[in-house]
Amino acid sequence: MPKIEIETFVHAPIQTCFDLSRSIDVHMQSTSQTKEKAIAGVTSGLIGLNEIVTWEAIHFGVKMRLTSKITEFNFPSYFVDEMVKGPFKRIRHEHHFIEDKNGTKVIDSFDYTSPLGILGKIADQLFLREYMKKFLLIRNQYIKELAEQK
C-alpha cells in the first residue's frame, strides 16, 4: 500500500488553490500527457461533495477508465476523492490546503493499493509508485503556475 505525500507552496490565496485543484477543466489541462478527459458525471467546472467523475486516459500505452467520487469536502481547506471503479484495488487522494501569510501550502496525500496482489507490489517497487508521484508533481506544478498568474 504505497502512500505518496507531496507539499507544494503556492503564492496565491487558499480559495484559488482549492478551486483549481477541484476543477475538472484544469485537471484535463494538467494531464495532457496522458490525454486524460472527463467522459461521465461532472465533465466540466468544479466538482463538489458526493459528485462523481469518470476519467479516460492512456497510461503505459493502454486506454483506462477510472471513476472517482468526492467523499469529504470542507471548503476551502480539505477534500478527498476516492476511486469507486477502475484499474486499482483502491485509491484515496486527500487534498489539504493551509493558509499562510505568503500564500497556501498544498498537501497531497495519495494512498493506493495496486491490483494483482504480489505482482502489483512488485510493479509498485519497480515503477508504479514513481510514475504516480511524477504524475502528481506535474499536475501540482501546473496548478501552482496557473494560481500564481491570477
From TrEMBL:
The keyword DNA repair does not apply. It holds the Pfam family Polyketide_cyc. This is Cell division protein. The lineage of its organism: Bacteria, Bacillati, Bacillota, Bacilli, Bacillales. One of its GO terms (biological process) is cell division. Keywords: Cell cycle, Cell division. Residues 54-115 form the Coenzyme Q-binding protein COQ10 START domain. CDD domains: SRPBCC_3. It comes from the Bacteria.
